[in-house]
Amino acid sequence: ALGDSIAVNGVCLTVTRLEEATFVADVSRETLGLTTLGELRAGTPLNLETALRAGDPLGGHYVSGHIDGVACVIARADDARSVRIEFELPPGLERYVARKGSICIDGVSLTVNETGGRRLGVNLVPHTLAVTNAGDWRVGARVNCEVDMIARYLERLANPADHP
What we know:
Elements: E1 5-8, E2 11-18, E3 23-25, H1 29-34, E4 48-50, E5 69-79, E6 82-88, E7 102-105, E8 108-111, E9 114-116, E10 119-124, H2 126-131, E11 142-147, H3 149-158
């Protein structure tokens, strides 16, 4: 509906106009600078998700759609029935990522399997590959990254002087 939030590849947008089978949303310069939205072309597969409503089951972790930066796929390999993908984060985001913690890539809530410096690895199970655009992530792909919001708040609490 008009005014609803919808995540497009993990980026929270507000519906400003509805047409037959499409919607329109405004995108700020801030959003274009922190995300891959400006790189999208007609026909590009997207992850679309409406906002979670109070009382709905939470099937992953809390995700706001407030993107922290663009990560890059640096490795991809088959791993039994799943696919293992390694990403490199933008500088400064590595502090918010923990092994067995959560990360959101292009709107997909994932468990972090390993970390090292600015790198992190995840496993994508067949269901995730089938119902998201994650199956299209190849080495060199740029993807929207949202770190776990609890890690952001903990940093703020631990270092209040750094956040006027």
